[in-house]
Amino acid sequence: MRNLVVLSVAAVVALTISPASADELMQRVQETFKPIPSVVPAIKGNAVTRDKIELGEMLFFDPRLSASQIISCNSCHNLAAGGVDAGPTSIGHGWQKGPRRAPTVLNAVFNIAQFWDGRAADLRAQAKGPVQASAEMNATPALVEKTLASMPAYVDRFKKAFPEDASPVTFDNITKAIEAFEATLITPASRFDQFLEGNAGALTAEEKKGLSLFMDKGCSSCHNGINVGGEAYFPFGVVEKPGAEILPANDKGRFAVTKTASDEYVFRAAPLRNVALRAPYFHSGQVWNLKQAVGIMGASQLGQTLTDQEEDAIVAFLQTLTGEQPKVELPILPPRTDSTPLPKQ
Length: 345
Hints:
Blueprint: H1 2-16, H2 19-32, H3 50-61, H4 73-76, H5 123-132, H6 141-149, H7 152-161, H8 171-182, H9 191-196, H10 205-216, E1 233-235, H11 255-258, E2 266-268, H12 290-302, H13 308-318
Antiparallel strand pairs: 1-2
C-alpha cells in the first residue's frame, strides 16, 4: 500500500512538471535571455590585449589615481563583494557621500550604457567620470598623467600596452586600459546560464517556479537579455511611486542627461546578474533585503501585490543568477618616486 502511495505521488509530480511544460519553459527562457559568454567580449575601438588588461588591473587597484591617493576604482566597485561597496552610497573625497548607489562593475560591459542614468556610453567614458568628480576621486587628467608618468615601471607598462604611441601615458590610454580590464570582469556559468544552455536539471522546481513568475508577472519585460537588465530605460514607479526614502524627489534620473520631461525618474533597468551578492538595492541603496526589493518592484512597476510564496520563489530564481566570480590576483603596484605628486586633502 505504501509503495502505491509513493508511486501515486510520483505520478502527480511527473504530471505537474511534464516534459512538454519543461520544454516550453526552456524555449521561452531562451527567447528572452542570453547566457554570459565564457570568453572576454570584444570592445569597439579598443583591442583587449594581455598587456592592456594587466595595466588596467593595476590602475583599477591604484588609489594614486585619486587626489587624496586613498580611493581606487576598487574602493567603490569591490571585486570581493559583487563589484560594489558595502553602503547605500559610496564615500568619496573628504568623506563626501555620493548621491547614488554604486552600480556593479561585474558584467557592466554588457550594459547599453553606464551609470544609472546612462550618461556614459561605455566603460571608457565611465572611467573618466569618477576620477574627475569632486565628490569621488577629485583628480584631474593632468594630475593623473603626471602621477603615473613619474613612475618608470608604469611608463614601461604603458609603452607595452600602447606601442604605437610616442607618449603613451595619457588620460585616454588610462581609461582604455581600465576598460580592457573591466571587460574581463564577467561571471559565466551560473546555474541559470546552465539552464539557458539546455540543462533542465540546473534549476530546482522552486527556482523554475520563480523563473516562470518572473516572466509571467512581467518582470522580464524590463529585465531581459544577457545581463537580465541593463539594456533599456524605464520610469521607477510606473504604477505607483515608492516612498521618498526609496525614490528621492530631488534625483530625477535620466532627466538630468536628456532634459526631457518624460525622462523624469527614469533609470536604466538594473542588471540582475549576481544581484544576491550586492545589497542594498535600487539607485538610492535604501532596501537591504532582496525579498523586500522584489515586493516593491511588483507594486511599483507592475501594480501587483505578490504573495509571500511568490516573492520567495522569485528570490530563489534570482539567486541562480550568481555566476563564477572573476579570479583576480591583487597586483603589486609600482613604487612612487621623488617626483610623484603628494596626496591632496
